[in-house]
């Protein structure tokens, strides 16, 4: 069975065995988006209330589960769904969820849901760093009025490492700001002017802003370390809105402590970043607490995806955004390429 065949087979099998029910994290979906397909019952569990679980009679009929977004330990419900056939994550990255799934359960990710929000946040981080907004905010509170010229995003050369859907959304915003964009992905795509990640070391000396938009896989973990950061020019800005462990924290700390590089990070390693961690007090470093995807633009997109998946589930056809199983022989997740 191929990975893309699994969802359709899962839906058909679920209907045949009487476990066609769906569990979702949001109430009122039918009222907002229309009636559900015949034969499909939709239950709600948001995972937020400590200790709360759906009744056993509901758990025994759920074949398709949409996980709550950003709810710690929501995956504890996996062991209580005996007839589960498919899982929908509302996150784009599913590397932590994937190994927890029982055999035969199809996995689908939230690709596209966070594109606008993450791109918007990344742009905000870049502009804040280039135009020194943290300094001006501190001056406002301190009553200082000390204007000076700053860097600019316009005319800067920005490398997007992980040129996927989020990278494309960010590129549109960067181009509007008159920046030059360099696209980098796991493999070269000359027809799209995309460089291979193997070329990154040669590109870095001419980069003003380096943006990481990477999933965490064996291939991307620690991808930006001492040698790569050393290749960046003095004063370059390192931005991470992908996964914290794709960037070597110790190497970044050494460069920022020396005042050679700057950083704007929405994800860190470790995460959460401890209160006493030196990156928090480092001049030229801006940290936000993994909130790039968490804006008002997320919920409407998430609801549209959930509704479409439920309709497909009810029709017994292939669900969107299937994630193939990991390739044991390489340790790489198929479909999880950097910037695929």
Automatic annotation (TrEMBL):
CDD domains: 2-Hacid_dh_7. The keyword NAD applies. It comes from the Bacteria. Keywords: NAD, Oxidoreductase. It holds the Pfam family 2-Hacid_dh_C. SUPFAM superfamilies: Formate/glycerate dehydrogenase catalytic domain-like (SSF52283), NAD(P)-binding Rossmann-fold domains (SSF51735). InterPro entries: D-isomer_DH_NAD-bd (IPR006140), NAD(P)-bd_dom_sf (IPR036291). Residues 123-292 form the D-isomer specific 2-hydroxyacid dehydrogenase NAD-binding domain. GO terms for molecular function: NAD binding; oxidoreductase activity. This is Dihydrofolate reductase.
